[in-house]
Amino acid sequence: MNSRQGRFITFEGPDGSGKTAQLDILAEEFIQAGYPILRTREPGGTPISDQIRATLLDLKNTAMIDRTEALLYQAARAQLVEEVIKPQLARGGIVLSDRYADSTLAYQGYGHQNTVTSLEGIIHYATGGLVPDLTILLDLAPEVGLQRRLDAGGLNRLDAYDINFHHRVRDGYLKLAEADPGRWIVVDADRTFNVVQQDLRAILQENLDKWGY
Ligand code: TYD
């Protein structure tokens, strides 16, 4: 029996904010240092969730309507929460997730302009009400993010939306962060990779210390 409470940290941000590459280094460093970290990502993270991810990102699925998309994200998430996140938290461990429920609010809610309260309902159903202890937003102007994405080569179905969509996503994220400053930390991602990495490392270390890891 482990009486320690686990901790759930999520990383959010627009496409091209460098989240994934930053997390590669950050997670590896803290795992090497001996912290009980499990890293995952959304959509995906379990065999079933990865199959749903492939459907969501498939460029051929142009007929997909908004509600289908929103529900598929929740289906992938429900499976991830039960199979991966909750067991790790029950062991007293730390979960670092590349995206989580706030991506649904930012993209399907603010981006696609679906009703945020309806989305909160299906998110609650999918997650059983599991909310992160800490959410780090890598904030970046959409123009910069899309350019980085183009430079890296290739676009997926979700990148194909127009720039206004990406502006709404960014503004949505900033609203979410502003509404819950106790949970969110906003990091300016329009700086060099190493400078952003230093910030992320300091934030993670500070919180792990605070939680007694
Ligand atoms: P991915 O290639 O993993 O992008 P990134 O590296 O930026 O995370 O694609 C994930 C895409 O899915 C991204 O465009 C955001 C989108 N998304 C949603 O629209 N809603 C969600 O709930 C989640 C988890 C992701």
CATH architecture: 3-Layer(aba) Sandwich
Q: Write down the CATH class.
A: Alpha Beta
Elements, N to C (H/E): EHEHHEHHEHHEH
Give the ligands present.
thymidine-5'-diphosphate
Oligomeric status of the shown chains? single chain
- Estimate the mean pLDDT confidence: 94
Spans of at least 5 consecutive residues whose pLDDT stays below 50 are none
| Inertia-based shape | globular
Question: In percent terms, what proportion of residues is strand?
Answer: 5-15%
Radius of gyration: 17 Å
- Termini separation (Å)? 17 Å
CATH superfamily, called what?
A: P-loop containing nucleotide triphosphate hydrolases
- The strands making up the biggest β-sheet line up spatially as 2-3-1-4-5
Number of helices: 8
What is the fold-level CATH name, i.e. the topology? Rossmann fold
**Structurally, how many domains make up the residues?**
1
The helix content is: 55-70%
Biggest sheet, in brief? 5 strands, parallel
What's the structural blueprint in terms of helices and strands?
Elements: E1 7-12, H1 19-32, E2 37-41, H2 47-57, H3 66-90, E3 94-98, H4 101-111, H5 116-127, E4 134-139, H6 142-152, H7 163-179, E5 184-188, H8 193-210
Parallel strand pairs: 1-3, 1-4, 2-3, 4-5
Helix pairs in contact: 2-3, 3-5, 4-5, 4-7
This protein binds thymidine-5'-diphosphate (TYD).
Thymidine-5'-diphosphate binds at residues 15, 20, 42-43, 73, 98-99, 103-104, 107-108, 156, 158.
